[in-house]
Amino acid sequence: MKITNFIVCDDIRHEEGNKISLMGVYDEVITFPVSPDKVDVWPKTLSFAVYIRAAIDREDVDQNIRKIVFSAGQQNNLQRFPTTDFSPEKGAIGQKVSCVVKMNNFQLTSNSPITCEIILYNDKEEEVTRVTPGYSVQIAENIIEGARI
């Protein structure tokens, strides 16, 4: 399986006509404005959403993938989101699998990046592989002098 899209944003909305709207898309960094006395004070609360899409390849089909689990968060605070069972009919090579997860009031416990992974299980409930995007969204602080935030 190859991840083709990994997008972190403020919100994801399902629309008529089988469309998805991504609101407030983050680039490479989520920056928190902080006063000097709040630098490196954790946790910080963030509500965000993750959209991830991956393509099925021959190896996935050959390994009898039957379940996909999606995880998102920080390395020390990943939350798992099981998807529906994955049927062989859905497992055509090149087919896309999409996951949408909303993380409300997520507690960032450090400035470690937000990342995700997809865990693939076979028909015997054995973990076959883990796939991660080639990048993550960094967490940063912007010190606002003279401000009380």
Verbal overview:
The protein has one helix at residues 58-62, and strands spanning 2-15, 19-25, 29-34, 44-55, 65-74, 77-85, 96-108, 114-122, 127-131, 138-143. With 149 residues, it is mostly beta strands. It has a single domain (2-143), classed as Immunoglobulins (Immunoglobulin-like). It has a 4-stranded antiparallel sheet with strand order 2-1-4-7, with no helix packed on it. Strand 5 (65-74) and strand 6 (77-85) form a beta hairpin. It is elongated and about 60 Å long. The model has no long low-confidence stretch (mean pLDDT 86).
Quick summary of this structure?
It contains one helix and ten strands; from the N terminus they run ββββαββββββ. It has one helix spanning 58-62, and strands at 2-15, 19-25, 29-34, 44-55, 65-74, 77-85, 96-108, 114-122, 127-131, 138-143.
SSE string, helices as H and strands as E: EEEEHEEEEEE
- Give me the Rg, rounded: 18 Å
Q: How are the strands ordered across the major sheet? A: 2-1-4-7
Class per helix and strand makeup: mainly beta
Shape: elongated
The low-confidence runs, each spanning 5 or more residues with pLDDT under 50, are none
Question: In the residues, how many domains can be counted?
Answer: 1
Helical fraction equals under 10%
The CATH H-level homologous superfamily: Immunoglobulins
* Strand proportion: over 45%
CATH topology: Immunoglobulin-like
* Largest sheet geometry: 4 strands, antiparallel
